[in-house]
Design a protein that fits this description.
By secondary structure, the protein is mainly β. The chain has helices spanning 33-42, 139-148, and strands at residues 2-6, 12-19, 22-25, 48-52, 67-69, 83-85, 98-101, 104-111, 117-124, 129-132, 154-156, 170-171, 174-176, 188-190, 204-207, 225-228, 234-235. It folds into two domains: 2-101, SRCR-like domain (Mac-2 Binding Protein); 104-207, Mac-2 Binding Protein (Roll). Residues 2-102, 107-208 form the SRCR domain.
Length: 236
């Protein structure tokens, strides 16, 4: 009934719904914050991060759907939302709405010398915490995470479980940060679940605000900084 098409990952793309056995786009003027919350939740993709307007991920095929969703934001599935016929205002594929969901809803560094260094751990949809595979993790990705945690710039992105092996799942997602993101959750993601990594390959981060980068009386204290995402939404 619902999918995101032509995006950077399973949790981003043009919003399409299956109406009468035909996939149709949704007009951006009919799509709001509550609708975005439900779409991300329905797809197990966390909370909405960005609503993209004007066919950001390309135009779909055929006519834009005539149905307008009127979600309240609490529904578990988009098809549970009330609907109404769209107004007589015409809408073309150039106005197809797209969406990027966070997928991950929690970010933290664990088992480091302080809150700005440690093993990278991410929480999936407010549930399981897991680690990140070091296979494609690099300094650009680490920079986005340091920025998100308020820890300055990235100094190092060590792998091979430098900060000890974690527990739970090892997320095999590949973050494709470009270097200008202020949050890891804003980076494109690809290769979801394709790589087979063990906790011996847990990725780590050392940020510039960490005691590990300078002599400090506070060095050696192990703390953990956690950032939880609720529903941060940006309109582009």
């Amino acid at each position: 009934f619902l999918r995101l098409v032509n995006g950077h990952s399973l949790c981003s793309g043009r919003v399409e719904v299956n109406l009468k056995k035909t996939w149709t786009s949704v007009c951006d003027s009919d799509f709001d914050w509550q609708d975005a919350e439900v779409v991300c939740r329905d797809l197990d993709c966390g909370a909405p991060a960005v609503i993209h307007r004007r066919a950001h991920f390309g135009q779909g095929q055929g006519a834009v759907g005539a149905k307008q969703f009127q979600c309240r934001g609490q529904e578990s599935k988009l098809q549970h939302c009330p609907t109404a016929a769209r107004s007589k205002q015409r809408c073309s594929q150039s106005r197809a709405v797209s969406l990027t969901c966070t997928g991950y809803t929690g970010f933290r560094l664990a088992n480091g010398s302080d809150s700005c260094s440690g093993r990278v751990e991410l929480q999936w949809f407010f549930k399981d915490w897991g680690t990140v595979c070091d296979l494609y993790w690099d300094l650009t990705d680490a920079r986005a995470l340091c920025q998100q945690l308020g820890c300055g710039e990235a100094v190092a992105a060590p792998g091979q479980a430098r900060f000890g092996q974690g527990s739970g799942p090892v997320w095999a997602d590949v973050f494709e940060c470009q270097g200008n993101e202020s949050r890891l959750s804003h980076c494109a993601v690809s290769s979801w679940g394709r790589a087979g990594c063990s906790h011996g390959q847990d990725a780590g981060v050392i940020c510039s605000d960490s005691n590990m980068t300078r002599d400090s009386p506070g060095a050696g204290k192990k703390r953990m900084r956690t950032v939880l995402i609720t529903s941060v939404l940006f309109y582009l």
